[in-house]
From TrEMBL:
It holds the Pfam family ATP-synt_C. NCBIfam families: ATP_synt_c (TIGR01260). The keyword Cell division does not apply. The chain crosses the membrane at residues 41-64. GO terms for molecular function: lipid binding; proton-transporting ATP synthase activity, rotational mechanism. It is found in: Cell membrane. It is a multi-pass membrane protein. This is ATP synthase subunit c. Belongs to the ATPase C chain family. Coiled coil: none annotated. CDD domains: ATP-synt_Fo_c (cd18121). It comes from Vagococcus fessus. Residues 1-64 form the V-ATPase proteolipid subunit C-like domain. The record marks E51 as: Reversibly protonated during proton transport.
Amino acid sequence: MGSGIAAGLAALGAAIGDGLIVSAAMNNIARQPARESAIKGMMFIGIGLTESLAIIAIVISFMLM
C-alpha cells in the first residue's frame, strides 16, 4: 500500500511541476516573443528532468515493495 501511495505522490508532483514549468514558459514567451525558441528549448529540458525524477521515484517505490 505504501508503494502505491509513493507512486501516486510522485506522479502528482510531476504533474504539478510540469504545469508550473509550462506556465512560466508561456508567461516568458508572452513577454519576449523574439526568444520563443530558446524558451521552448529550456521548457522541454525542464519537463524532461521533472518526468525523469518522477519515473525514478516510481521505480524506487516498486523496488521497496
